[in-house]
Design goal:
Largest sheet: 6 strands, mixed
Number of helices: 12
Strand content: 5-15%
Strand order of the largest sheet: 3-2-4-1-5-6
Order of helices and strands: HHHHHEHEHEHHHEHHEEEE
Amino acid sequence: LVHTKCDLTMLWLTYDDWARGGFTHCRNRELAICLVSSLASLGVGLYLWLRHVPPWFLASRYGAANIRRLAWDRHKEKEEASARLYRRNIRLLLIRHGESQANTNLHVVGGRDVGTPLTEKGERQAHQLGRRFHQEFLNADAIYSSHAVRAKRTAEIACQAMGVSIDRIQVAPDVVEFSQGSLEKQSRAEVYRTGGPVDRALAKHSMFFRPPGYSPDGDRGESQHDVDLRLSAFFEKLLPPQGAGAEQRFQKTVLVFTHGVAIKSFLRGVLGAKLNFAQTVQIDHTSVTELLYQPKPGCFGGWNLIRVNDSAHTFKVDDTPYFVELP
């Protein structure tokens, strides 16, 4: 920065001399050399600066989508690393709700729609999930669900199949699905038509695109980045150690019944993945995505991805259920 400031000062003085007719009357070759060297130095400095990811406070206002993504991921990574050693071990199981009635209406744009119920198939999926957890002897220390009907009902059916009281389910609005604003309930073909305003906005802003207006439920449109911020803030509340001594490092298992785009958005932030990550990863109904948070220094600590979209409990082989009854 000091060199750049000096070069800019010299460049201005050189230009001032030229404007006064210095080149015409004095034909000072040194001024020409100084002007060229100053311009070259400024160009090299600008090139080197652009090769580095700018700070988030600058990129968030002036950067293109991919620059903003890189700057945010770098910013988030530094904050997480600085707080890591003061956190606890967490085993986090992210579960998408079972199939809902809104999922069967593929011709309209979905979104948050907290009132849509599960279909019969969705209830069976939730029951199969609970049976799987029961046979795996899963012992959850905490169970959370979004306030959407489809997520809460999935959690209740799964807990009943596990032999766990539904009173243990804690409602957490922060893990609800993202809102598509005024786009919700509209014709999918019309909203996402090639060359349309939404298609152009997605191409330009990608994960930072915030749908306009408000949904029929009154929720303002959210970008995938907004959802990542919301879920990350919620999960950070689970990370500070509880108790003292050995209890701080005791692993806590947490079940979170949430939604597809919500899981994808959080995963993208954890992995530092590309802009269109949410469009290129599959999260099936009642699938399990598992992460492990380890308060270790260096590259082995932080969030570790264990599995993604594990929906084996919904499969059948030769018409034989995946599960057999335990004696």
